[in-house]
Every structure is written in structure tokens, then in C-alpha cells.
Design goal:
2 copies of one chain form a homodimer. The first copy, chain A, has 203 residues and is an all-alpha fold. Chain A has a single domain, classed as Tetracycline Repressor, domain 2, CATH 1.10.357.10. Chain A is 74% helix and 0% strand. In chain A, helix 6 packs antiparallel against helix 11. Chain A binds a DNA duplex (30 and 30 nucleotides) through helix 4. Chains A, B: InterPro entries: DNA-bd_HTH_TetR-type_CS, Homeodomain-like_sf, HTH-type_Tx_Regulator, HTH_TetR, Tet_transcr_reg_TetR-rel_C_sf.
DNA sequence: CATGCCATAAACCGATTCGGTCAATTACAT
DNA sequence: ATGTAATTGACCGAATCGGTTTATGGCATG
């Protein structure tokens, strides 16, 4: 791995992206080092030169995405916002920012949850708790509850928001998606929900 | 294929399900006939005895899911309902019914959209237009528009509903999901949206 | 220009897996 | 007992796998 870390970022990124893409798409076993090499523009021997084994590359990736997530969370301080919908917006924007740089990171993270290959279960199990936060980062608080209209079933709303987040997440794993358009849509949607479900005095 | 069609349904279904699962999960190229055989409880030579080649099996599956969809649509007459949310509910219930019998059919259909292997592009291209309907079946009509509150941006609502449908669809591709629970949730959600976004006189 | 060094990749390795076949066995109807 | 169809273990050559060997070319140093 040391050999790889000495590379410039513009040399590292294509390799990381290709690896995230292949592992994310096919899972550990069916992703091949040859595919990753070809997609990243380096030769297969170079991949092994940098990472040693396939497993070591997977391990490196898992630690890499972990650190990316941790850095993003530290910078955004999502918990500092005291309104539910604001937290949702900040978290969403944060994810968009990450996806602009690493389009395949989400697909890779999701694939780690579904990974069953014995050769890497120790790796996936270790980062799962932290990866969870990448999806569930906006717990409902007491002070949010009172803001909703009495007639609104808040559990249903939360579930709906979570589902939409998953829907967006799934769309964002598509390489052809327009992140700017998705961001704009999402902001409109959140605003619409807030203005229709909150009591008037909290708008 | 004739050999396979002579089998009883209880002998056919495990094979169809295993094939839908494998192709849906791994795509055409990385799905192997050995895996499919093992998952379906028959031997590999039997698979080739029934279907001839891997491609023929894939072709058979594509036609099979097509006919399943067509039959379901004919029976449900979704377009006969004149309220948007009613159409959504009927379409959702229809999908649930199909998924109870074919848990992997949705994942397979989605995978056909993402299929890139040259060996089967002719097959996927052919059924794509019809498969589209499986997702987009509830166009907004003029008579729906007037029912919403003036303040509601209907495009945003439609987009939200579609996203949620995708979120549910993604959840339903998970073999561990509880279809009954999802159905119940979905009905609650639709009801909540309707009662908060429609004008009072249309409730 | 000679030399040593290091990044790079073509070609290759044995092992495994692939799609597909065949010979032999089983189950069963007559 | 016998013929027939269903079924499969064992096998095929080809492809692909993770990983390595070896040869190449650039490049700094003298």
C-alpha cells in the first residue's frame, strides 16, 4: 500500500474509482483485478505492485471510504442543526458533495452490506456500524415532534423521507445521473413537505 | 424449451426463481449456469437439457416475465380508476401480488435495464419498452390536478411518489423483506399524502 | 556515453471456473 | 424382463482467475 500512497492524487483517483465501481457492481468474488486494471488505465501487474493482493485492495478501499465519511461528518456538524428538515438538507448536500468526487462510493458502501464472501466478512463487519451513519443520520428528536400538525403520523413521514433518500441514493449510483438536478429537486421536495406538514407557527 | 414447458409448475418455479435471482444479481455474463443449477435443485446437465444454452435460458426468462407482467396488467385494469392515489394503490398491490409469487422478478427486470453484455442486448432492448410500464404506470391526468391544494407543486409530488416507489421497489428486491408490512406502510403513506395535499372537498 | 535503478507492462503461470457434452445410471411404464 | 425417457457424475476444451516473471524503456548519476 505504501507504494500507492506515494502516487499523486490524480493518479490515485482513477484507480480508486475503478475499484469502487467493480467491487460495488459485482461484489468481492466476481469483481476481477483485470477488470479493475483495465477500467483504471493501469496494468494488472501494477495493481498487484501497489496493493499486493486482491484482498488488500479491498481492505484499503474499506478504510479509504471510512476516512472519507469521517472527514465529511466532522466538517458538516450535522447534529448542530436543530430542525429536522435542516438536518436532512445538510446531510443530503454533504452526500452530494462526496458523490461529485467519488461517484461510486455509495454503490460500494451498499455492496459491503450485501457482501457474503468469507474472504472479506471480517472487513465488511468492521466498517458496517460506521457506514450505517451514512444512511441513517437524522434521528427524530423531541423538539421536532411538536412542529408537525396533529393529524400527521410522524412515523409515516420519517419512513417516507427515508424511502425517498434511498430512492435518491439508488439514482445517484447511476453514473449518468445529474447531481445538480437531483439536489435542486430534493430541496424543493423537502420544502414542500415542511410547508404542508408543519404547523403554521413553525414555518 | 418444450421439454421445460412440459414440467409441472412446482418443478418449473424453483428453476425460474433461481435463474431470475442469479441473472438479476450478477448480470448475464457473471451469472453461471452451475450456480443456477445448484440454487434450483436440479443438475447442470438438466438445465442444458431444458434450455439448450445459457442465452436461450435468458431469452426464455425475458419472455416469461413479459407475459407475467402483461397478464397482471390485463387483470387489474389500472386505468379504469379515476383518482391518482387510487391508481397508485392498485398498481402497488398488483406488484406485491406478483412479488409474492416471484420474489426475484423485480431485481431481474431492473438488471435487464443495466445489462450491457453484447450477447443479450437484442433481448433486453426488445422487452425494455414494456418493462418500463412496470415502473411508470400512473400518469397524472387533468382531472387529478384540480384536486391538489393551490400551494402544492404537483411535479414535485409526482417525483416524490415515484422516488418512494423506487425506494420500495429496491426494498422489495431483498429476500428478507416483509411484503405484508410494506403493503400496510404504503397504504398509510398514500393516505397521509392524500389527506394533506388534496383540497378538503376532495377527501 | 556507460551504468544502475525503478516504474511499467507483455507474456506467462498453475488453478479454477466457464459453457456445454456424454456415457452411464436410474426410474418407470409396459 | 425390457425398452424408454429422465437424470447426473464425470468430463471436455476454452476462458478467466489471482498472481508472477521477465523484459523493456526512461532517467538520473557518473
Amino acid at each position: 500500500m505504501e507504494k500507492f500512497k506515494e502516487l499523486s492524487e490524480e493518479k490515485q483517483l482513477p484507480i480508486i474509482e475503478a475499484a469502487l465501481k467493480c467491487f460495488g457492481k459485482h461484489g468481492y468474488k466476481k469483481a476481477s483485478m483485470g477488470d479493475i486494471a483495465q477500467n483504471s488505465g493501469v496494468s494488472k501487474p501494477m495493481l498487484f505492485h501497489y496493493f499486493g493482493t486482491k484482498r488488500d485492495l479491498y481492505l484499503y478501499l474499506s478504510e479509504y471510504v471510512r476516512s472519507v465519511m469521517i472527514v465529511a461528518y466532522k466538517r458538516n456538524e450535522i447534529n448542530a442543526y436543530d430542525d429536522l428538515f435542516e438536518r436532512i438538507l445538510v446531510a443530503s448536500r454533504m452526500k452530494m458533495g462526496i458523490l461529485e468526487k467519488y461517484p461510486y462510493i455509495l454503490k460500494f458502501i451498499i455492496s459491503m452490506f450485501e457482501e457474503t464472501d468469507d474472504a472479506v466478512t471480517d472487513i465488511t463487519k468492521k466498517i458496517m456500524p460506521e457506514a450505517q451513519r451514512f444512511s441513517y443520520d437524522l434521528v427524530l428528536r423531541k423538539e421536532d415532534v411538536v412542529k408537525f400538525k396533529e393529524s400527521v403520523d410522524i412515523d409515516v413521514v420519517m419512513r417516507m423521507i427515508f424511502l425517498m433518500a434511498e430512492g435518491y441514493a439508488h439514482e445517484m449510483t447511476d453514473e449518468r445521473c445529474d447531481l445538480g438536478k437531483i439536489t435542486e429537486e430534493l430541496e424543493k421536495t423537502i420544502h414542500m413537505l415542511k410547508s404542508n406538514l408543519y404547523k403554521e407557527e413553525y414555518l
